[in-house]
Amino acid sequence: MKERFKNLFMKSSKVIHWLESPGFLAMQKAGNILFGVVILAGLFLHYFEGISVILNNIIIGFLMITMFSLFFVLSLKFYWIKPPKFIRKGTENPAQLFDRYSHWSFVYGIIIYSFFASFFIGGIVVTVVHLIFKLNYDFSKLYYNLFFITTAVFTVFYFMYHVSMKGISTKVIKVRIRLYLAIIATITAGLFGLSLKEILLPLVTYLGIGLAWLTYFIEKIEMES
Fold it and tell me: How far is residue 6's CA from residue 217's CA, in Å, rounded to a whole number?
């Protein structure tokens, strides 16, 4: 299990480094990809305008998916909202911040980073469902639910990164998990009867789900070792 996550992180890192590497026209390769897709989509829509509305939507959808996907992948390399100095501690981007095993880096990840990541993922979902497949779907709670799901997924990947890539002991991780579970239980108990319940309860619930899966992965690693 540990090696699987390590391979996943290493491959993801290679993709990000490749996208950031120099490309043509004094741009990074990510910029070249987006620029090329925009040009191709523009040429296609110009020369084949009116032939097929469905085909036009697919081309536009492909452009938007490419854009949102690049923003999602490269969001690790750019502070959309720069945290205070006592949180970022000299780091220049979220990737460097998440490389630090600290409470503040985790909090920034489950709130700020997860918010923007869920926005980009939501953009891809809306494009595929509504623009390409023309399906009628109520998107009113899409971003709301995606945010909480993203916090749970981030929780798993954050700690598994430090276990598989940084060599943090599983015992240290398990102590941190118990701490966060205790905090979640305390917050949940304090929410009864409060108006904030509708806002915070889903967050702590999904965090609990993320920590539950994380506990499974940690115990799986301990069993395999």
Answer: 13
Mean pLDDT, residues 181-190 taken together: 82
pTM above 0.85, yes or no: yes
Q: How many domains does the chain have?
A: 1
Phi, psi at 28, each rounded to 5°: -75, 165
Reference 117, options 72, 85, 183, 155; nearest CA is 72
CA dihedral of residues 86, 88, 91, 92 (deg, nearest 10): -120
Q: With 0-12 CB in 10 A as exposed, 13-18 as middle and 19+ as buried, what is 103?
A: exposed
Alpha helices of the chain — where are they, by DSSP H?
Answer: 2-20, 29-47, 53-74, 85-88, 94-98, 103-108, 114-126, 142-164, 170-190, 197-224
Please say if the pLDDT value at position 193 is more than 60: no
Per-residue pLDDT tens digits for 33-76: 999 989 988 888 777 766 677 778 888 888 899 999 999 988 99
Quote the pLDDT of residue 50.
64
Whether 131 shows a pLDDT value over 90: the answer reads: no
DSSP SS3 for 101: coil
Question: What is the Rg, in whole angstroms, of the alpha carbon atoms belonging to the chain?
Answer: 20
Domain that holds residue 206: 2-224
Cα 107 to Cα 23: distance, rounded to the nearest angstrom = 35
109 closest CA partner among 144, 73, 155 = 155
Give the CA diameter of the chain.
Answer: 62
